[in-house]
Write a structure and sequence with these properties.
Largest sheet: 8 strands, mixed
Order of helices and strands: HHHHHHHHHEHHEEHEEHEHHEEEE
Strand content: 5-15%
Length: 384
């Protein structure tokens, strides 16, 4: 789609509404004769989209009752390139435009929010689609002993998988939507829905740059996939949320400092028992975090990143606010000296049984951190 003044060619301007709805199927870009109709890429697109290409962007916008400018903005937000005025769109594209515009007209979404919906959905599903094609379908379409080529296998395979994958995608999305809605409902006030106090952590593979020079591309890809899979499973299993992966680094968050501490230590312990993995270092900070489109921003996130960069191998460093939060919720002693005195008094029978702490905190040397001033990191460990 493009967003020129009218979006229409002279012929488009003369097109009435009925004609827009009844435009005959046209050749997709790059297809110039009927011999190309059996091209596997075209057949796969028709199978996946469930419809032929019928409309130019102008015709689709007009059929949806939106301006060409807004249609182009929606299209780009979803992550698709400008396509000029070729017939490349389907009934589904018209319906999607009509739905988004209808939400704006009804006052349920502002225009800016509708653009954000399109962008966040496009970015998320683009990555999912790339992963499914690169990792999933590629492995299943290796040439078989039957003599069929990958091209010949792909079409019937997609035909079988498409409805199942679609159902599963909707199921997972509903589950994630329910979980996210629950977190919002539990927020104390409206401000907390956007600027929230969270524990944010980074886990970073040590010496990854050196590994990229030593390992073959396939080996490196397998290592990164194993790292991301392990981190994703551990973060989810212990009640955290994986925000994003960055190859040799993952970013996670948790509403509770105790959950984040457990995740950080579990990551270190799990990777240490895997001989194929490099050492790991983790940095966690606690504080106000701004959330946008599933990502997190702010000083707390920056501090967690800096703590990760200065953490020794196979250790978890946390900031002062995180240490104080662990003390407040009773997962770590506010003072090791006080904890030791309480334990001694209990042993001598002169005091009550001491609290059971999960974690220990050891203060480290204060140090300047670029952009954040002087910070006092704490070394997090399990309590004996």
């Amino acid at each position: 789609m493009t967003a020129d003044d009218s979006g229409a060619t002279p012929r488009d301007k003369d097109t009435d509404d009925d004609a827009v709805r009844d435009v005959p199927a046209g050749d997709p870009p790059g297809v110039g004769d009927e011999s190309d109709e059996n091209n596997i890429a075209v057949r796969l697109e028709q199978l996946i989209l469930g419809a032929d290409r019928r409309y130019t962007p102008f015709q689709a916008a007009r059929g949806a009752g939106v301006s060409m400018d807004l249609a182009a903005r929606f299209w780009r937000a979803m992550g698709f390139a400008d396509i000029g005025q070729v017939k490349a769109l389907t009934e589904a594209d018209v319906l999607a435009l009509r739905r988004l515009a209808g939400l704006v007209e009804a006052g349920l979404l502002s225009e800016a929010m509708a653009i954000q919906v399109a962008r966040s959905t496009g970015q998320t599903t683009a990555r999912l689609a790339d992963w499914q094609i690169d990792s999933f379908l590629e492995g299943l379409t290796e040439p078989q002993d039957s003599g069929l080529t990958r091209t010949e296998i792909t079409y019937p395979l997609v035909e079988l998988l498409l409805p199942e994958l679609e159902e599963f995608l909707v199921y997972v999305w509903r589950r994630q939507l329910a979980a996210a809605t629950g977190r919002v409902v539990r927020a104390q006030d409206d401000a907390e829905m956007v600027d929230r106090r969270l524990a944010v952590g980074f886990a970073d593979l040590v010496g990854f740059t050196r590994l990229t020079r030593r390992l073959e591309e396939e080996e490196l890809g397998e290592l990164v996939e194993a790292f991301e899979t392990t981190c994703s499973d551990l973060v989810a299993a212990h009640g955290g949320r994986l925000i994003k992966t960055l190859g040799d680094e993952v970013l996670f968050a948790a509403d509770d400092a105790g959950i984040a501490a457990e995740i950080g230590l579990r990551l270190i312990e799990t990777m240490a028992h895997d001989e194929t993995m490099p050492e790991l270092r983790v940095g966690i900070a606690f504080g106000t975090v701004t959330t946008r489109m599933g990502d997190v921003f702010g000083t707390t996130v920056n501090l967690a990143s800096r703590l990760t960069s200065i953490a020794p191998k196979d250790t978890v460093l946390v900031d002062q606010a995180f240490a104080e939060e662990l003390g407040r919720i009773g997962d770590a002693p506010v003072s090791e000296a006080d904890a030791a005195a309480a334990e001694k008094a209990a042993e001598e029978g002169t005091g009550a049984p001491p609290p059971t702490y999960r974690f220990a905190l050891q203060p480290m040397w204060q140090r300047p951190v670029r952009g954040l001033g002087v910070v006092e990191p704490w070394l997090l460990s399990r309590r004996d």
